[in-house]
Description:
By secondary structure, chain A is mainly β. Helices cover 10% and strands 39% of the residues of chain A. The termini of chain A are far apart. Chain B is built from 11 helices and 7 strands. In chain B, helix 2 crosses helix 5 and helix 4 crosses helix 5 (117-128).
Amino acid sequence: MRAWVGGVAGVAALALGVGGGWLLVATPEKTDAPPTPVAAASPTPFGTLVGVVTWGGHPPKREPLPVTRDHAACGAEVPDRSIEVGPDRGLRNALVSVEGLPAEQSAIATPIPFHQVDCLFTNRVTVVPTGATIEFVNGDRILHNTHVNTVRNKPANFAIPAGKRQRYGPMTRETIKITCDIHPWMAAWLIVRDDPYFAVTDARGQYAIHDVPAGRHKVSVWQETVGKGGVEPIEIEIVSGEVVRHDFLVRPASATSVRSK
Amino acid sequence: MRACALALTAALALAACTRTDHAAAIRDGEAIFFGKGRCAECHVLGGRGSAVRGPALDGFGARADARGRERAAAKGGAPLTAGEYVVESLVDPGAFAADGVPPIMPDVSRAPIGLDRRELDAVARFLLARGGDPAARLDWPAAVDDPARRAPAPASFAEGGDVARGRAIFHDLEGAARCVGCHGLEPGGSEIGPDLRAIAAIQPPEAIRVAVLEPNREIVAGYHQTIVTTKDELILIGIVKNETDDAFDLVVRKTAVATETTRLAKADVAERAPGQLSIMPNNYSELLTPEELRDLFAFLLTLRGDGERGATRGS
Lengths: 261, 315
């Protein structure tokens, strides 16, 4: 459960700077749910996986996206945040996942805010547990339409007037692109997970996944422009009570298949 | 026909006469196709018209027999002849939509298009002449002669609506609806949504009401998105084009003016799901009051492709 709190808080802290708020909503630690039997054993059967995800090849040249309407509210252009590379080629907003571990339901009763400010989604990647409800918030003074491009959740395309909110959920496991059809440069990812063994990289590409059961696990890295295809599948040994470090290099997508017009 | 009747003395003369008659009908049909019939609002033919909402109609006559067989395969019943197929396509277009095109086409014998039997016949022969036999037998249902079909359909939901207020709601970029943000009415306006400049001239009022309040009931061709997930869990959302047996293009909107096309091999695709929703929001019945909706509908019903530009100047 702790990993869930850390994971969600990490995402919130990145973009909102208010990570503490998540601790209030992630209350399962205080419930009467029985503790995991192995948790009391000694030595602890959990370890930590940390590292840095870097962008392979040259730092991509992502031209700012032109704003074609609502300049007063949105400005003249917005950054293309589909690939964000920081110092030392650290790749932001990559999702590192330990795979194959059992689901852990983590009830979060309070709706999780999903903000739209200055004609951008504040978070590029938001990860929430299954069962969570989202509250889309329009912090701008113009209308946005928040389009949930889902296959497995309830289809939704909300027109949300200035300053208004719209709840959506509860949600089931899926990786969903959220868009605004009025402002086609707006995009963000809402990833619904039923396990806590993941982390989203920060602006330097750093990640940390805590409380991973010891053992050999497959670890993947997902990034929105390459999916999981940027990193070869790898197995990593998590050692009880230790911090295991593994860095990843994400290969860019093959440019040959993409053409613009 | 009277002149023809006088010449019915020789088979040769009959043939010549029939050809002449159909030539006139084909000429009329072309004029109606691009004029009163408004067909080119949604169909392209000979490089004229729009290819966005409906299929291109070049070669219609050459395909009509095959379409009649496709229809039988899809819907049952005996294969339609080319003549039967074109008749059905014009007065009961929802019966069979070829190539998976959404069945949004109106019955053109009814208002607002309202073609009469002679006009229907002319358009049908013009279409059949695109590579087929324009002399095919055409059996129009007797109902096409009912003048009530061509009377404007009632629109109680717009009655008493204020067109000026509706126009303001449509154009208000600060408002809840801001329709013009996606449906530009001016040259150079937004093309995110379908062109509505002549919508009231091609669709009956009820279809317009449904399109506003239930935009997901029929998503206009060319605006239907597909969510593609590759085996690497790369997720792309766009419009599928140029599909072959083993690959397809996905056209993804990048900005309001630019798209990015990715050629995807089907072997690399794990899942391909139709986007279940129109890009048009589906909560306008909550965002607008009943009075505002009434005004908006009253305004939409004035969009006949003949003066909105002047009407909105300076707004």
